[in-house]
Amino acid sequence: MPSTSGIVLENTTVLADICGVNDYNLRILERLLGTPVYSRGNELSIESPDACIQDLFRGIVEELVSALADGLPASPDLITAIHASLTPDGQNHPSARPRTRCSDLFKEASLQVPGAFGKVFPRTANQALYLRGLSSHDISFAVGPAGTGKTYLAIAWALREVLSKSRRKLVLTRPVVEAGESLGFLPGDLGQKISPYLRPLYDAMEAIISFETIRRMEDNHTIEIAPLAYMRGRSLNHCVVILDEAQNTTREQMKMFLTRLGEGSVAVITGDMTQVDLPRKADSGLAHALGIVAQLDDIFVCRLDGRDVVRNPLVRKIIEAYESER
C-alpha cells in the first residue's frame, strides 16, 4: 500500500507559485520523482512507499519555498536543478543533499543590473556556478551548446559591472566567420559591417536593459564593438571584454586575444565546439586554448551541457538528438 507524504503550506500564493500555471510544475515534479503529486487545499502531497522519495519530495519543496522567499521564480528549470542537486548521479537518495542549498547558490549568483527590467537569475546550477566564476576570475571560458545562457549571462554580468561603474567600458568582439554561406559585400562603416555578426549580443542586452540605455552607452562610448582582427596591438584597461563564438577563432587569434588584457580588465570567452565554421575543427583556437590554459589556477572554465538549455524545451531535445547521432 502506498503511503502518503504531505507538506502544508500556509501561504496560498507560495503554493500557487510552486504548482505553476495549470499545475505545470507539478507535472515536472511527477516526472522527476516518478510518482503522482497532488495539490489539495493548502497541501502538497505524494503517494509513495519509498522513504527516500518522500525525503526528496520534502527537500525539493523546502528549497522552492526558500527560493520564492528570496525572489527566485519557481520555474521548471529551478525545480530540475534542485532535484539534480539533491540526487547523486540521478538516483533518488536523500544523502546527496549538499552543504550549500541549491536555492542559496541561485540567490548568491543572481544579478541586479542598474536600470534593468528586472533581476537576472541563473536557471540551472551550472549557470549559477558560471556567474560565481565570472566574479572571481579575470579570464573565464563558457563552453556549451546553443541555448545554455553562455552569452546572455556574460552580457548581464558585464552590464552590471559597467553600469555600476566598476569597469569603464564593455568591449564586444567575435571572429567574422560566416556560418556556411557568404554574405558578400556589406555596406556602411565598420560598426555597420560587423553589426550583423554581433546581433546575438545586442539581443541579449535588449532583453536586460532598454534600447535607450544601450543607445546612451554607445553614444558615450561605454560600449565598443570591434572585429577580433582589430584587437591586435591593443591593451584593454578597466574593461569587460566578451569574445563570443570563440570556437571560430584561429589559434593565433585566440593567443592574441588572451594577451590583450590590461590592468583592471576581465575577459569572458564563450563558444560551442559543435558549431565550428572553420575549415577544420582542429584549427579552433578555443579548443587549443582549453587544452593549454584551462589548467591555470587563475582561469575559470564552465562547461555547460544539454541539461543547461533554457530556451524552448524542444531545443534541448534537438541537441540531445544530434548528440546521440555521433
Fold and architecture overview:
The structure is a single chain. This protein has 326 residues and is of the alpha/beta class. It has two domains: 4-105, K Homology domain, type 1 (Ribosomal Protein S8, Chain: A, domain 1), CATH 3.30.1370; 111-325, P-loop containing nucleotide triphosphate hydrolases (Rossmann fold, 3-Layer(aba) Sandwich). The chain has helices spanning 12-19, 24-33, 51-69, 76-85, 102-109, 125-136, 150-163, 190-194, 199-208, 211-219, 251-258, 285-292, 313-325, and strands at 4-8, 37-40, 43-47, 139-143, 169-174, 223-227, 239-243, 266-271, 299-303. A six-stranded parallel sheet has the order 6-5-7-8-4-9. A three-stranded antiparallel sheet has the order 1-3-2. Helix 11 (251-258) links the parallel strand 7 and strand 8 (266-271). Helix 3 runs parallel beside helix 5 (102-109). The longest helix has 19 residues, at 51-69. The relative contact order is 0.12.
Largest sheet: 6 strands, parallel
CATH C-level name of the largest domain: Alpha Beta
Strand content: 5-15%
Strand order of the largest sheet: 6-5-7-8-4-9
What would the principal axes of the Cα set say about the shape? elongated
Features of the shown structure:
single chain; 326 residues; alpha/beta; Ribosomal Protein S8, Chain: A, domain 1; Rossmann fold; six-stranded parallel beta sheet; three-stranded antiparallel beta sheet; 9 strands; 41% helix
Quick gist of this model?
By secondary structure, this protein is of the alpha/beta class. Helix content is 41%, strand content 14%. The protein is built from 13 helices and nine strands.
